[in-house]
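Researcher: I'd like a candidate sequence for this fold, 146 residues long. If you have to choose between options at a position, lean toward the conservative one.
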């Protein structure tokens, strides 16, 4: 499995968990919403950590550029982290309107972020990283825990 395949699959898995949480909240099933949301939040934060601690540094070392695409991606991660905090607050308060409206913002943000990574950053990593670096980076990413 390539870096691109592994990380794209994680995007899909997080999307599914997010949609399940949203559906449960829409149904007023807050117990399920919280469970699915926690799974989404943990998996997303671990995915970000894989990128920030392993993949982005590998890209930055290879290109000599740490103020390009990876800087934008790190900034967007901060925006997602902020929204995760707000969504957690809405769940705690069982505020359906707030939760569903935050879900819309989150979906737009994540969709655009993930598309940029899949079409640009992951694709570039596959092209420019030496074969050995790709293998070790994927191994190290898989070992990252929250
Ligand atoms: Fe990312
Ligand atoms: Fe990603």
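Model: Candidate sequence:
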């Amino acid at each position: 499995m390539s870096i691109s395949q592994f990380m794209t699959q994680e995007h899909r898995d997080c999307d599914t968990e997010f949609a399940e949480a949203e559906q449960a909240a829409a149904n007023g099933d807050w117990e399920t919403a919280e469970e699915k949301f926690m799974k989404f939040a943990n998996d997303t934060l671990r995915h970000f950590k894989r990128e920030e601690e392993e993949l982005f540094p590998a890209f930055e070392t290879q290109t000599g550029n740490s103020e390009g695409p990876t800087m934008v991606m790190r900034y967007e991660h901060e925006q997602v982290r902020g929204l995760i905090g707000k969504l957690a607050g809405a769940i705690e308060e069982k505020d359906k309107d707030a939760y569903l409206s935050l879900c819309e913002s989150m979906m737009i943000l994540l969709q655009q972020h993930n598309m940029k990574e899949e079409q640009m950053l992951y694709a570039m990593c596959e092209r420019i990283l030496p074969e050995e670096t790709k293998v070790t980076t994927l191994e190290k990413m898989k070992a990252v825990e929250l």
